[in-house]
Amino acid sequence: MPGDTNDAVRASLHEHMAWWGLRHIESDAAYFAWQREVFTPQELDTLHRSIEAKRAAPHGSAADIAFYDLTARPQSVPALYSQRYEYYLEVGSRIAGRLEGADTILDIGCGIGLLTTFYATHCPGATVVGLDRSPASIALARHRAQDLGLTNVRFDCVDLDRHHPVGRFDVIVATHVLLQAEQDPGLPSSDWQSFARAADAQAQQAFEQRTGVGPRLDRLCGALGSQGRLLVFEKARQLARRIPLQRALAARGLGLLAPPEPIRYRSIEETTEDGPLFVTGCAFPSQVLPWDESPEPDGLPPLRVGQLRSVPVDPDQPLYENHGPSAQQAWLDLPAKQVVNQVTKKEADGRQLHVEWGWAGAFVYLYCANTFDQRQLVVIEPARAALVETYYQEIAGHQPGGGRDVVQ
Ligand SMILES: C[S@@+](CC[C@H](N)C(=O)[O-])C[C@H]1O[C@@H](n2cnc3c(N)ncnc32)[C@H](O)[C@@H]1O
Question: pTM of the predicted model, to two decimals?
Answer without folding.
Answer: 0.92
